[in-house]
């Protein structure tokens, strides 16, 4: 009987392990569509100056893997060498975010000093709290939404009229804009040309501003992990493009995501979407 109790956990573990293999939640691929794994991702992320982790905002596998990668990088590289940042926080809220990280503001009061996304509690609070617990800087990188809206209505030139006190929350002017980049061409095409280049320009303002605050808070020897919607980093464009305009020597690792009914083979159109592509079952439950 004692022997049975000893073997029972092994039997149960084996049964659940095989059951899990029947319904994998995700698969990981490299840029050429070959299967890879988390161990390889972690090894390559350790070598990068900047990791751009593109997500689908409502995908739980993304949020889980972001946390796990951040945790493991910190364990390996040391908290003193880490910087975190995210699209989900706008630059003019940095002071409020810093107050929370330093313990001056309690979690229940954070929403009074920082504009929080509706899914903050489930999807981003774990990352912010990890930074707080480990005394890691967390950078609010995105442009305040009202200035992106201003560009959407009146173009990039409209930013010239802003006072200097406001310009500190956006990338330095003039902002370079390349309408031939595929990411902006796709936005223009999806809008049917409505509004001319203003819509992709407003996206470019976000990308340029996020790149600006990433670069501003990175220094040699540091490892910056940034979380953003995948469209802001897919195919090494958008944020990655702006970062390389500032510093062509940066080692940037892009993690992206796609969802498929069948995750055993990566769709060819998703090749090169990132250095690592997280392929998640399309039936996966959403966080919101």
Question: What does this entry look like structurally?
Answer:
By secondary structure, the chain is an alpha/beta fold. The chain has one domain: Rossmann fold (3-Layer(aba) Sandwich), CATH 3.40.50. It has helices spanning 2-22, 38-47, 60-77, 94-101, 120-134, 145-154, 164-167, 182-190, 198-216, 239-246; strands at 26-30, 35-36, 50-55, 82-90, 138-142, 223-229, 252-260, 276-281. Strands 2-1-8-7-3-6-4-5 form an eight-stranded mixed β-sheet. α8 runs antiparallel to α9. The longest helix has 21 residues, at 2-22. The radius of gyration is 21 Å and the shape is globular. The termini are far apart. Residues 1-20 have low confidence and may be disordered.
Give the helices and strands, then pairings:
Layout: H1 2-22, E1 26-30, E2 35-36, H2 38-47, E3 50-55, H3 60-77, E4 82-90, H4 94-101, H5 120-134, E5 138-142, H6 145-154, H7 164-167, H8 182-190, H9 198-216, E6 223-229, H10 239-246, E7 252-260, E8 276-281
Parallel strand pairs: 3-6, 3-7, 4-5, 4-6, 7-8
Antiparallel strand pairs: 1-2, 1-8
Helix pairs in contact: 3-5, 6-9, 8-9, 9-10
Rg from C-alpha positions? 21 Å
Order of helices and strands: HEEHEHEHHEHHHHEHEE
Q: What class would the helix/strand composition place it in?
A: alpha/beta
The total number of structural domains is 1
Beta-strand portion reads 15-25%
Can I get a quick summary?
This protein has ten helices and eight strands. It has 288 residues and is an alpha/beta fold.
